[in-house]
Amino acid sequence: MTIRTMTPRDYEAVDERMRRLHRMHVDARPDQYEEVEHVYPRDDFEGIVACDQCIALAAEEGGKIVGICLAAIREARSAQGDHGNRTAYIEALYVDESARGRGAGRALYEETRRRAKELGASRLELMVWEFNQSTVTFYEAVGMKTQRLILESEIL
């Protein structure tokens, strides 16, 4: 398995994996997500790939993309002001079901951490929904910890 930087030519493969990831969210939380044709239109994807403050990685096996990770560097700000903390925020990490359990997710995560550090980030953050317990378990296994909880209640 190879972890490499995405190129604009990867759009179709990335688009397919982003649709699968998005579909999981639509199915679990239709109150928060709706169907879209493309999670990232081609122009947006090409902008991410070209961005020097973005990390766009593909896990490739046998010449085929089997996993993706997209992250962006953000300047952390708080109500108390800017503390100069650069944070790498993982927007998406997805591995094909057929490739799970073989290290693609961990390799994508570790390479994202390495590149984030090179870009001056001191933190790596992401958001995962409670319904996605297998992903929570994965992130805990690679050393991530809960930073905060967001609770909700419907008002009927």
Describe the model.
The protein has a single domain, classed as Aminopeptidase. It is built from four helices and five strands; from the N terminus they run βααβββαβα. The protein has helices at 11-28, 42-50, 104-118, 133-141; strands spanning 2-5, 54-61, 64-78, 81-95, 123-125. A hairpin with a 2-residue loop joins strand 2 (54-61) and strand 3 (64-78).
What's the topology here?
Blueprint: E1 2-5, H1 11-28, H2 42-50, E2 54-61, E3 64-78, E4 81-95, H3 104-118, E5 123-125, H4 133-141
Parallel strand pairs: 4-5
Antiparallel strand pairs: 1-2, 2-3, 3-4
Compact description:
The chain is of the alpha+beta class. The chain is built from 4 helices and 5 strands.
Summarize the biggest pleated sheet: 5 strands, mixed
Oligomer: single chain
Name of the top-level CATH class: Alpha Beta
- Helix-and-strand structural type: alpha+beta
Task: Write down the secondary-structure element order.
Answer: EHHEEEHEH
Enumerate the spans where pLDDT stays under 50 for 5 or more consecutive residues. Answer: none
How would you describe this structure in keywords?
alpha+beta; five-stranded mixed beta sheet; Aminopeptidase; 156 residues; single chain
